[in-house]
Amino acid sequence: MKTADDVRSAFLRYFEDRGHRVVPSSPLVPQNDPTLLFANAGMNQFKDVFLGKEKRDYTRAASSRSASAPGASTTISRTSG
């Protein structure tokens, strides 16, 4: 049976092999941003890029955040194999 870490690694490797930059995911509770209470999507780390306040040296990115729901990572590993 694959673990959640196995599935996450395979996901990231798939996109990295196709030219995406693997970047750290944003934390569940955003740091240094009083406009966000919690991370409800995996795009929070790109907010300043979308607003034109920041530039990155890549145009395609992939990240993976651990599931925040109790038991969700166990369910993912059980149903993905």
What would your notes on this structure say?
The protein is mainly α and 81 residues long. The chain contains three helices and two strands, in the order αβαβα. It has a two-stranded parallel sheet. Helix 2 links the parallel strand 1 (21-22) and strand 2. The longest helix has 13 residues, at 4-16. The N and C termini lie close together (7 Å). Residues 73-77 have low confidence and may be disordered.
What ranges have pLDDT less than 50 throughout 5 or more consecutive residues? 73-77
For the secondary structure, the number of strands is: 2
- Percentage of β-strand residues: under 5%
The N- to C-terminal Cα distance equals 7 Å
The succession of helices and strands, N to C, reads HEHEH
Mean pLDDT: 81
Approximately how much helix is present in the residues? Answer: 25-40%
Q: Which characteristics define this entry?
A:
81 residues; two-stranded parallel sheet; 2 strands
